[in-house]
């Protein structure tokens, strides 16, 4: 097996500013092998009577979108039951809205602020991610909401919330160090053009879905490997912000990326201000799951990875959504968040099915902005990370910091490890059970460098694993398989 020493080249650098997520109470993490009947933590406030006859409504906290709610149906309902329920709700909302004479009512202000939405509100989006995650979202007045809570077809209701990109700080230096660090067991110096050691499969046959602000597809570092693009934001296609392009470059750029031969698919859910809603994220991941199923039957396919460098308040719906994607066989990697807080307070970082990534510095310490705690599965470089950026020359780069930058390092390594596995049509193929997201997460931790983070508080960082791609030790599928069988 041939190993390559990769050395990056230097081009024009650009910078931008960013925001971070807000805080709500924590949720304990749980291990699961299938999509659960997810129960909300008691720390999420019920806004209506939570008796056994009434469907609970969970408050979205400080990031809530006024009057907008996500409604999840109970399992195993008939299509007719769901159709009848939605007809009743739509009719109720029309009556409720028509009774308001004040055109400046807060409800109408909320619906006007949402593009492509009737002023009178009602159901605006329906989704069927898996049999365990079927529902709708829309704008509803209190009278309509009360009718929904009295329905025997609804499992729970959650107020929709804003989601933001998870990156913060901007610096500009001469060289990337993150790639070198993940192919070495020991700390590396911060110096230009450090070596990056990897097997030449390099993510081939794996699709990485970048759920973000979009991607500048024409950037030369992607070399035509962006094979799909979809937009669920309220802005135009492409990346006018830079965050998604930077993330994609770290995961799979030809020069700055980990998985240099992986395919890239842009799933735009964040607008040009780096904001989204739970509803848009549901739409994006529903599309991703369907696209994954379609592409999984193509020759040479070796797996799908989602990178979601996004975050917001703790959300039952978002955590269930991540579990649905993992249940579909997709490896989901998410940023821990940049609040210097317990990652279990945020979604999707709190999802037990995701691979949640904290950020480290060149000195192998926790970056002071990085969230921490039992919900963080692994740590990766996230300070002063050089990667691709938007601009007219199609070769701009930027140096950015955040758990947004750490997460794609891990997504790239997952794609890289999956590419070591024989393709589906090979006589040497490995079963999907062995390659399950849960097993690959365990393999990442087994390969990870233990005890390298300095100044570690075992209560704050119980999972003391620093990302390692297995360079010079894992060069084919048999060694990867062994790492999953520890």
UniProtKB/TrEMBL annotation:
Belongs to the peptidase S8 family. Residues 1-21 form the signal peptide. Residues 203-444 form the Peptidase S8/S53 domain. One of its GO terms (molecular function) is serine-type endopeptidase activity. Pfam families: Inhibitor_I9, Peptidase_S8. This is Uncharacterized protein. The active site is at 212 (charge relay system), 243 (charge relay system), 404 (charge relay system). Keywords: Hydrolase, Protease, Serine protease, Signal. One of its GO terms (biological process) is proteolysis. The lineage of its organism: Eukaryota, Fungi, Dikarya, Ascomycota, Saccharomycotina. Residues 68-164 form the Inhibitor I9 domain. SUPFAM superfamilies: Protease propeptides/inhibitors, Subtilisin-like. PANTHER family: CEREVISIN-RELATED, PEPTIDASE S8. It comes from Saccharomycopsis crataegensis.
């Amino acid at each position: 097996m041939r190993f390559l020493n990769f050395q990056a080249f230097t081009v024009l650098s650009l910078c931008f500013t960013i925001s971070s997520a807000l805080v709500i109470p924590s949720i304990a993490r749980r291990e699961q092998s299938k999509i659960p009947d997810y129960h909300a933590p008691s720390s999420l406030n019920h806004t209506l009577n939570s008796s056994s006859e009434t469907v609970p409504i969970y408050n979205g906290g400080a990031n809530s979108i006024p009057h907008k709610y996500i409604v999840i149906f109970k399992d195993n309902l008939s299509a007719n039951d769901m159709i009848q329920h939605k007809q009743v709700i739509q009719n109720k909302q029309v009556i409720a809205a028509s009774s308001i004479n004040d055109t400046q009512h807060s409800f109408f202000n909320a619906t006007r602020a949402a593009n492509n939405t009737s002023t009178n509100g009602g159901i605006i989006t329906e989704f069927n991610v898996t049999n365990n995650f079927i529902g709708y979202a829309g704008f509803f007045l209190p009278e309509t909401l009360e009718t929904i809570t009295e329905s025997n077809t609804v499992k729970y209701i959650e107020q929709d919330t804003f989601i933001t990109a998870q990156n913060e700080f901007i610096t500009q230096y001469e060289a990337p160090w993150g790639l070198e660090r993940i192919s070495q067991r020991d700390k590396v110096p911060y110096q230009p053009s450090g070596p990056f050691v990897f097997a030449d499969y390099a993510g081939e046959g794996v699709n990485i879905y970048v759920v973000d602000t979009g991607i500048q597809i024409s950037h030369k570092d992607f070399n035509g490997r962006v094979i799909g693009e979809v937009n669920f934001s309220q802005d135009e296609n492409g990346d006018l912000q830079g965050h998604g392009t930077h993330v994609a470059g770290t995961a799979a750029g030809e020069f700055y990326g980990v998985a240099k031969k992986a395919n890239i698919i842009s799933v735009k859910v964040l607008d040009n201000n780096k904001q989204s809603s739970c509803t848009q994220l549901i739409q994006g991941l529903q599309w991703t799951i369907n696209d994954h199923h379609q592409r999984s039957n193509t020759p040479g396919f070796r797996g799908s990875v989602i990178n979601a460098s996004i975050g917001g308040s703790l959300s039952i719906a978002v955590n269930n959504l991540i579990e649905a994607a993992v249940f579909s066989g997709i490896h989901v990697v998410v940023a821990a968040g940049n609040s210097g807080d317990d990652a279990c307070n945020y979604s999707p970082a709190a999802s037990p099915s995701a691979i949640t990534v904290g950020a480290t510095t060149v000195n192998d310490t926790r970056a002071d902005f990085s969230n921490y705690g039992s919900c963080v599965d692994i740590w990766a470089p996230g300070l002063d990370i050089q990667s691709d950026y938007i601009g007219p020359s199609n070769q701009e780069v930027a140096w950015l910091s955040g758990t947004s930058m750490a997460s794609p390092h891990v997504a790239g390594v997952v794609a890289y490890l999956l590419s070591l596995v024989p393709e589906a049509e090979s006589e040497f193929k490995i079963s999907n059970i062995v390659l399950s997201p849960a097993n690959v997460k365990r393999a990442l931790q087994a390969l990870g460098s233990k005890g390298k983070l300095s100044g570690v508080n075992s209560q704050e960082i119980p999972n003391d694993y620093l990302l390692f791609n297995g360079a010079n030790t894992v060069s084919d599928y048999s060694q990867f398989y062994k790492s999953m069988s520890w």
